[in-house]
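Lecture notes, part 5. Sequence design as translation. It can be helpful to think of inverse folding as translation between two languages: the language of shapes and the language of residues. The source text, in structure tokens, appears below.
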């Protein structure tokens, strides 16, 4: 994993990358639907690793339907 993959994004940067509202990311984080880094203990700010978000995007990719005739 390179330095770019390890980059931590705040909730606004991560939301922009995923085209979501920050509130959605907070909900997903607290429901543990995606990995999150909690800085400064349990009440600290949330950060999201770029590589985790890219992995989420890759896993969510749905191939196009192939028309059969």
């Amino acid at each position: 994993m390179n330095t770019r993959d390890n980059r931590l994004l705040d909730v606004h940067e991560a939301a922009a990358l995923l085209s979501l509202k920050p509130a959605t990311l907070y909900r997903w984080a607290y429901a543990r639907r995606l990995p999150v880094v909690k800085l400064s203990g349990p009440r600290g700010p949330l950060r999201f690793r770029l590589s985790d978000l890219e992995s989420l995007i890759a896993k969510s990719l749905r191939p196009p339907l192939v028309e059969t005739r």
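The translated text above is only one of many valid answers, since several sequences can fold into similar shapes. The longest strand covers residues 46-49.
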